[in-house]
Write a structure and sequence with these properties.
alpha/beta; Molybdopterin biosynthesis moea protein, domain 2; Molybdopterin biosynthesis moeA protein, domain 3; 6-stranded mixed sheet; 8 helices; binds adenosine monophosphate; binds magnesium ion
């Protein structure tokens, strides 16, 4: 296992006091080690889980050539350009019931979608293109080409090929694909266990009586939601008061149970509390000042075997640092090979002031304008403690490290929340 000092030595120009977002991500990518325990789960429990091995298709899908339409199947070599074709139906092939007879030249077979194409037939005329009269059907000239409306054996997947790759997170489409292979169980990595708590003496748990200067804990609830969306097993450790014994007990208990620990608060410069001290004492931890807004202070490292993410205290800074760093790191730990989704480009509906030399995240709503192009509007007060503008947003405008001021109508990058928030 690499120590933080090892990683710091590998990264050229690593400066924990002035760290770019990209460099911070590189650091984390080197720090994180994926879990390896696997388990077999039922397909209904497999959504969002990460595949532990490639899935090799035991069968071909579809298992036979079949019709893509309700209509009439025939030998397409009889089609002649600019000429109509008249055929006599000699039977009906239903899905799930193979047709046993033979279909000769001048004949066709009434066929339903999904029914097996009998040998020798390669084309289906949809029923809407066949005019029926006196027990015959006629296909107008040039209405069809040979091979139309036939699905091939194995056109989705051939037996023996890789249907899904190790490291893929199972989507609804992937569940359907597994089912189409006849697989009721699948081998996945175990779920990640993540413990989290909030720190700060001014932070009240829900249900506690309010008092002067105190605020309700919101961070534990946003972190709970973000982790649950990611499919983690969550261990909620409450609000931990700023006392060395309590902090030590909390970190020790979290490290013994969890793969990762997420805290909020107490990591900024000039904090008069014990959170940083305890992290330093109990683990291998770096304290970062990241060139970003909101965010900036963050602690990362390990306590025991568990990865530690010490997030800032401000509620929006917690969410932004989670999305910018923690989410990707946890996915890596879960064994997911997923790349960060591409950023979207949208026109800014306002000008924005931006200082080069740090990455800024603004809460925004992306919508498509009358001309069909995307535009993005910021959602009001961008203070790092203001959750209401986060609630209204459907994405974060990402103004990159080098970027300067943005003019009205300029294209900007947006990280859409999709299923993450
Ligand atoms: P800190 O990083 O501890 O200096 O906290 C920065 C700001 O975030 C302060 O205004 C805190 O009161 C606030 N804050 C810290 N933790 C929480 C929390 N769990 N829920 C809501 N606000 C918090
Ligand atoms: Mg504090």
């Amino acid at each position: 296992m690499k120590t933080l000092a090892d990683i710091a030595a590998e990264l050229e120009g690593y400066d924990p006091q002035a760290l770019s977002v990209d460099r911070a991500r590189e650091f984390l990518a080197r720090l994180i080690e994926p879990i390896t325990d696997t388990q077999a789960v039922d397909i209904f429990s497999a959504l969002d889980r990460v595949l532990a091995q490639d899935v090799i298709s035991p069968v071909s899908v579809p298992p036979h050539d079949n019709s893509a339409m309700d209509g009439y199947a025939f030998d397409g070599s009889q089609l002649v350009p600019d000429q109509a074709l008249t055929l006599t139906p000699v039977g009906t092939a239903l899905a799930g019931q193979a047709w046993q007879g033979t279909v000769s030249a001048g004949q066709c077979l009434r066929i339903m979608t999904g029914a097996v194409m009998p040998a020798g037939l390669d084309t289906v005329v949809p029923q809407e293109l066949a005019s029926v009269a006196q027990n015959q059907i006629t296909i107008a000239a040039n209405a069809l080409r040979r091979g139309d409306n036939r699905r091939f054996l194995g056109e989705d997947l051939l037996a023996g090929s890789i249907a899904l790759h190790k490291g893929e997170r199972l989507t609804p489409a992937a569940l359907g694909l597994l089912a189409s292979l006849g697989m009721a169980k699948v081998q996945v990595l175990r779920r990640l266990r993540v413990a989290y708590f909030s720190t700060g003496n001014e932070i009240l748990s829900l249900g506690e009586p309010t008092r002067e200067g105190a605020v309700f804990d919101s961070n534990r609830y946003t972190v709970f939601g973000l982790l649950t969306r990611l499919g983690c097993e969550v261990i909620d450790m409450g609000v931990v008061r700023d006392e060395p014994e309590r902090l030590e007990a909390a970190f020790t208990r979290a490290a013994a149970q969890a793969d990762a620990i997420i805290t909020s608060g107490g990591v900024s410069v000039g904090e008069a509390d014990y959170t940083k001290l305890m992290m330093k004492q109990l683990g291998d931890v770096a304290f970062w000042k990241i060139a970003m807004r909101p965010g900036r202070p963050m602690a990362v490292g390990r306590i025991g075997q568990a990865a530690l993410f010490g997030l800032p205290g401000n509620p929006v800074a917690v969410m932004v640092t989670f999305l910018a760093f923690v989410r990707g790191a946890l996915l890596q730990m879960m064994g997911s090979g997923a790349k960060a989704p591409p950023l979207l480009r949208a026109r800014s509906a306002q000008s924005m002031r931006k200082k080069p030399g740090r990455t800024e995240y603004q809460r925004g709503v992306v919508s498509s304008g009358a001309d069909g192009r995307l535009s993005v509007q910021i959602t009001g007060n961008q203070g790092s403690g203001v959750l209401s503008s986060m609630v209204q947003a459907n994405g974060l405008i990402v103004l990159s490290h080098e970027q300067g001021n943005v003019a009205l109508g300029d294209e900007v990058d947006v990280m859409m929340f999709d299923g993450a928030i």
